[in-house]
Amino acid sequence: MKTLVVDVPSGLADATGVLTALKIFALKNKFYDLLICGYSGDFSVLEDNVNIRCDYIQNSQTSANLALSHLKNTDVAGFLSFSKRELLLKEAHSVLPKEVSPCYGLFFSGRDSEKETLLIDAGGFGEFSQDNIEGYLSYAMDFLTNIVRKPRNEISIGLLAFSESLSKADEDIDSVLKTLNANYRGYVSPGELLNSNFAVVLSGGPMGQVCISAANAAKKIQVNAQIIQTSKNIFGKWSGNNQPARTDDFDAKGYYLFGYGHHIYSLSSQAHYQNVITALTALERFDRNQPRN
């Protein structure tokens, strides 16, 4: 059997739901073992379960560092993490081989919840250049066609950039993309990122992550202002007709870390049972190249 490695740090909001999902997935699947990495006191309940092995951190190790160290094993087919994005990328870069530059694939719903966008951080630790842009785009296309099961000719592509102040690199990569893919639609400004008009948006370095973080922060400020305003109105406070908007992050579904030759899926510390099942199933599909039914 192949192995899916899972990094389980302390401090999960729904630890019971996460551990239950791991047990259920391991019990029902016939092709994968789960190797769980973390603190011994956090998930000893998983020991002695079918298709589950546990490896506990020692000394100054983190659960992510320990889990990543197992990816060199030939039987490993995927990796699920709950670590913070910055920590995971830093430790992945220090532990895993450097032959391929890493990049993030952030899968989020914008203003139209029926349409989702895969934001590719095509800068990674390398240069946002003509030489590597084809590889980053290839990661995105393979994911959307094999896993999301989106027809290749419907995958619209954009390049995140400030059109009023383009750099030489932006212009060069724009020219490359025009010849590389017929579905390339040109530049996407940060203000258009959440319009869901593109299936893939390529971003140079951290620009895309900054835009998403800013959008999340702005949404929370708006919701907090609405809550404050509602609390001042005694009728609105008790009527139930003036409920604040949901505060879910735009990237609540998690993200993929591409570029190491491994399938890495990361969820936030707020993940619950269904998030874990969805992530593990996606890793299984990715490994077996099976489109979603």
SSE blueprint:
Elements: E1 2-8, H1 15-28, E2 32-38, E3 52-56, H2 63-69, E4 76-81, H3 85-95, E5 103-109, E6 116-121, H4 130-146, E7 157-160, H5 168-180, E8 184-188, E9 200-203, H6 207-232, H7 234-239, E10 255-258, E11 264-266, H8 273-288
Parallel strand pairs: 1-2, 1-4, 2-3, 4-11, 6-9, 7-8, 7-9
Antiparallel strand pairs: 5-6, 5-10, 10-11
Helix pairs in contact: 1-8, 2-3
Principal-axis shape equals: globular
Radius of gyration: 20 Å
Could you name the ranges where pLDDT drops below 50 across 5 or more consecutive residues? 237-245
Report the β-strand fraction as a percent range: 15-25%
According to CATH, the fold-level topology of the largest domain is Isopropylmalate Dehydrogenase
Summarize model confidence as the mean pLDDT: 80
Strand elements, count: 11
Count of DSSP-assigned helices: 8
The CATH homologous superfamily of the largest domain is termed: Isopropylmalate Dehydrogenase
H/E topology pattern: EHEEHEHEEHEHEEHHEEH
In this structure, how is the largest beta sheet organized? Answer: 11 strands, mixed
The strand line-up of the biggest sheet is 3-2-1-4-11-10-5-6-9-7-8
Domain module tally: 2
Architecture of the largest domain, CATH level 2?
3-Layer(aba) Sandwich
Determine and state the CATH class of the largest domain. Answer: Alpha Beta
Class by alpha and beta content = alpha/beta
C-alpha termini separation? 23 Å
Helix content: 25-40%
